[in-house]
Amino acid sequence: MVKNPERRAALLDAAIETLAAEGARGLTFRAVDSRAGVPVGTASNYFANREDLLAQTGVRTYERFMPEQQEWDAVISGPRDRAALTEAMRATVTRLTAEPHVYLATLELQLEATRRPELRADLTARVRADLDANIAFHEEQGMPGARDTVVLLYLALNRLVTEHLTLPGVLAAEGSLDDLVTRVVEAVVPEP
């Protein structure tokens, strides 16, 4: 396999865009090459097979969702109250919705995982590790609530983002995305 990290990242970004636009069935080496603007056959030089491409695309979506250092710093150095947690959740939702194609690609990967046991195992391990890390971070930082708070926020906010990106009219009358995040946090996190 070829080792050019910038080209690999560009191919994976093209795979993300392809998944979001065409679904998993449209994710072919040729489609990735075309979307990346590289010669036909390039993607097959970087990924052993389609399963490898799917797995590495899953990793790349996580890389794209990682917060900038200043977002971490704000949580670490700021207050430990419901208002601060609300701001952190708003920042998270903003990051997840800033590049809709990345989030939509994760949904496509999850759907494809229902048909591919290896992909399911890989995504399950990655998402579970991320959830565990978020729970540990929440507890270490002394944020309000406990383990269940993080799990409920994970469930509610992921569904909120999914609804916002796929069926925005459903919640449009309920308020802005920021307002909805605030309502979720206030419903989940106990008042001190």
Would you spell out the secondary-structure blueprint of this structure?
Blueprint: H1 5-22, H2 29-36, H3 42-46, H4 50-65, H5 69-77, H6 82-98, H7 100-113, H8 117-140, H9 147-166, H10 168-171, H11 177-188
Describe the structure.
The structure is a single chain. The chain is mostly helical. It has 2 domains: 5-61, Homeodomain-like (Arc Repressor Mutant, subunit A); 67-188, Tetracycline Repressor, domain 2. The chain contains 11 helices and no strands. The protein has helices spanning 5-22, 29-36, 42-46, 50-65, 69-77, 82-98, 100-113, 117-140, 147-166, 168-171, 177-188. α1 (5-22) crosses α7 (100-113). The radius of gyration is 18 Å and the shape is elongated. The relative contact order is 0.11. The mean pLDDT is 95.
